[in-house]
């Protein structure tokens, strides 16, 4: 009987070892712009993620310090810092997931589109390197204007012959994070259980939260409440830009949102079922070539771009009025990538 017990316990131990190894394959994550306002807290949060085995921190300056600092945290990921163009290739080599918060943020009075000139060039350069060094990686684009930088990335990858629409994501998770927080506050429900899809794009009126699909549902909200909640979600970024009064835009909440989305991508890659997040991706949900909606994540990235579901009259109206601006931002990105 002793030996039977022993062999059963050995068997259990083996199974446990097997399942923990199987649940956590090696995954390399690269953050480009890792020394910035978003990059640093995002590096911290990704270092805390047990799914990450290797964390590559790249920036044009200051990454050695950030990497040395973060590397002392006693979690799984091995951290390396890379600085300057010469080290970009090595930073990217073998990456499963590349997260891009590189670029300039907004100052008061600026729209996301005002960032276009500088950030478009930065994104183009970084995506050219991704195509060369880790063409199979999932790319999470945080750099604004997301409505244009995602189409730029797609064009760069097409030119390089590496484009896979399943692997390119505009990160709109902060809009979802804000919609959840603001909705929970107004509807007076515990925020932890709240879900709100946010569709469209990632700037001003192109951000369309679908509060009619929010869970738990609330009948305590009037039409005026919903209009105000929608506007606050759309202007959430500006609220932070103004409060920071010239010292940049959302960084901490964005790092959180980026870490949530990055984690979802890794879970998808690892084969965890039913991972659904909103993201700005190549889409046929509307007539626009890129559109944010709920996306099911899987082993090769986007497994399914989900439809919009039923919209309220207010949301239908919002959808129609965002299409013009969103299309012109998409076209602006495509044109930049093709002409430069
Ligand atoms: P930041 O200025 O604090 O940091 C940007 C970092 O990018 C700097 O460390 C800079 O050295 C680096 N950088 C510049 N050129 C680079 C290059 N060629 N390669 C690698 N790194 C480079 O700015 P912050 O606040 O971190 O914002 C970064 C971007 O994220 C901005 O474009 C901002 O608009 C965007 N953002 C996006 C949000 C979203 O919801 N998707 C929310 C908030 C900001």
UniProtKB/TrEMBL annotation:
Task: Extract the Pfam families matched here.
Answer: Ldh_1_C (PF02866), Ldh_1_N (PF00056)
Domain named Lactate/malate dehydrogenase C-terminal: which ranges?
Answer: 172-336
The catalytic activity of this protein is classed by the Enzyme Commission as 1.1.1.37
Q: Which keywords does UniProt give here?
A: NAD, Oxidoreductase, Tricarboxylic acid cycle
Give residues annotated as binding substrate.
106, 112, 144, 178
Reaction(s) catalysed (UniProt annotation): (S)-malate + NAD(+) = oxaloacetate + NADH + H(+)
Q: Can you cite a GO biological process for this protein?
A: malate metabolic process
One MF annotation (Gene Ontology) recorded for this entry: L-malate dehydrogenase (NAD+) activity
> Would I find Mitochondrion among this entry's keywords?
no
In this chain, NAD(+) is annotated as bound at 33-39, 59, 119, 142-144, 254
Name the catalytic site residues. 202 (proton acceptor)
Output the Gene Ontology cellular-component terms: mitochondrion
NCBIfam families, per this entry?
MDH_euk_gproteo
The protein, known as: Malate dehydrogenase
